[in-house]
């Protein structure tokens, strides 16, 4: 009799394991421009926000100066990413691909609805009326992508910062370390909030020993600068799955000033499409290493994003 019951128990355990595997497979979500299909181990809290992603749509013309020209990454493709990693709010970021033509991302912004915000790209010819129109549509910042020649220049940063400051907007900076160091005198005097993309591109292997880290931290200490915990692959020399060198920088930021950090996926990973696409579940799970305390992680994923991008606080 005991043998019979042991077999029954074995069958019950095996059956439960099979059900769990099937459930896991059912939860698996293949996402365009992303490796893997499994859900992350980290469960996203309610209103978790992806503060940095793009969309691409071939029906919109590409800026002639653009060097990055990814394939289509549409609203429905991004919704598959949200389903996979569990985020519900999102911030669209105008890429260099479209210059100052914000139509592609504004269309996506409307499709996503009230759970989305946007960072646009404008130059110094933009009218006050256009800025007000963009605000009404959900834009809350302007981006200066100085990683390559494009629609904006360092000379535009200060005057545009002054113009958008009263609207509660921020300026967002994407540039290599040398360029950020070069424009640091401008950044130290602009009136508006500042957001640095992708860990502020702190170079490796120097990491937090590099002078740029101290400069960025000094700006953060003044209470008006934010860093995006995104693009772990952007400056790493170690690579996946740990991105140990980039992770050390991210941990330094979150340990020092978690109230000035937000998280972003950087989907569809435009800089990586010609290399090796990352696994978005692995990238999301890095947060357990970068921000090990659950309450602080909630602040990074929910509260900070609500403050920076003007989402409802509830």
Molecular structure report:
There is one protein chain. The protein has two domains: 1-30; 32-309, Alpha-Beta Barrel (TIM Barrel). Helix content is 40%, strand content 12%. It has an eight-stranded parallel beta sheet, sandwiched between helices. Strand 3 (116-120), helix 4 and strand 4 form a beta-alpha-beta unit. With 314 residues, it is of the alpha/beta class. The protein starts with a helix and ends in a 5-residue tail after the last helix. The radius of gyration is 21 Å and the shape is globular. The chain has eleven helices and eight strands.
CATH-derived topology of the largest domain: TIM Barrel
DSSP helix count?
A: 11
What spatial order of strands do you see in the largest sheet? Answer: 1-2-3-4-5-6-7-8
Overall average residue pLDDT? 92
Low-confidence stretches: 1-5, 16-27
State the helical fraction. 40-55%
- Portion of residues in beta strands equals 5-15%
What are the defining features of this structure?
314 residues; alpha/beta; TIM Barrel; 8-stranded parallel β-sheet; 11 helices; disordered N terminus
Give a brief description.
With 314 residues, this protein is an alpha/beta fold.
Layout: helices, strands, pairs:
Blueprint: H1 2-27, E1 49-53, H2 75-85, E2 89-93, H3 103-112, E3 116-120, H4 128-137, E4 139-145, H5 157-165, E5 170-174, H6 177-187, E6 193-196, H7 211-221, E7 225-229, H8 244-256, E8 261-263, H9 280-285, H10 287-290, H11 294-309
Parallel strand pairs: 1-2, 2-3, 3-4, 4-5, 5-6, 6-7, 7-8
